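Narrative of activities, Objective 1.

The group set out to show that a structural description can be obtained from nothing but a protein's sequence at a throughput compatible with the screening campaign. Below is one input-output pair from the validation batch, recorded exactly as produced.
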Amino acid sequence: MVKKIRFRIKPVLILYSVLLANSAFAQSGTSFDASSLVSPGDHVKYGSYVIYNIGEGVYKINDPGVKTGKGGAWGVDMYLICGENKALMIDLGNNYMEGYEKDLIAPRKNAAHELREVIYGLTGELPLEIAITHAHPDHDGMTAAFVNRNVDFWIGKGEDTSALKTQHHIDPTVFKVFTPGEKIFDLGGERIVETFLVKGHSNGGTVYILKHDKLLFTGDALGSGFGQSFRSVDRLRVAAEDAQKLVDYLEASFAPYDRYALRVYTGHTWQNIYGGFMHPEKEKVDVGYLDWRFIQDVASCANGILKGKWLVEGSGLHLAGRMAYTDSWPGAAGQAIMIYGTGTIIVPLNVAYEAAGLKMPE
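Output recorded for this entry:
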């Protein structure tokens, strides 16, 4: 039986109050207050972030983003899991300390303090570890906010650690490299986070599985409802293979009833809203989080493309059209939208034909 997780809210220390006095928050006399985050669904806004309770001692830290930017600037999510002995933060969002020019993200005053106030306010005196799903700038952006603060950083084997240097001017050796599938995070109170490799979007993309709570944190490995983009046959094939491995692993690890209860939290939950340009035949539905059906459908979509099933009537896979240009995903413009149930893959049509071993019509 899992022990009840006790998460502790750290008292405001005198030294911390001095630091706070230099921030914009001190001017209004407010600091982060987690007291209202009691039950799943409870949420509170603090500075740039909206913090949600998504389970006992489990939180989503949402950066709503700005629509004047590109890519990750449109919004990204981080997650925090508190055990009895440790806390694990998954992903580090956009870089608001220096900004990130490629996504048109400007720096924000007191950005590091703001995020630390949230995280330390939730973890209390628990030692903190941070692991990223992949080394893209909207998922490792606030690394510098926790450097030299007695925090262990983790990154999956295969990820380009040099990206930390080129993106954010951070020494990549601050991260310890682990092998997804072998590494687990034991947070205490029988709260154990497993890791699973899903390549395609990146070479070391890691899914984190909190098995007892039936929670999966997938970053961008499976997409976020909008789907995932693969520009080459090799990328599509490895993504199809690893997505199917994840399906097989979950089938072996969870009884059917438990699989139906799985909740999948992605790196960009604003994209979970189905409809619009991605699913033009459907009304928009805000699903909040994704599920076991989504994982299966993504694997079926990717593997169906490899078999040319969008050309087979009744297969369940269909070509919904071409991606229009959007600032949120400019690089996907013109690519084919392949849909299987709730799973979507964005791929150049010539790549889809090549992957299926078919000649593309003139």
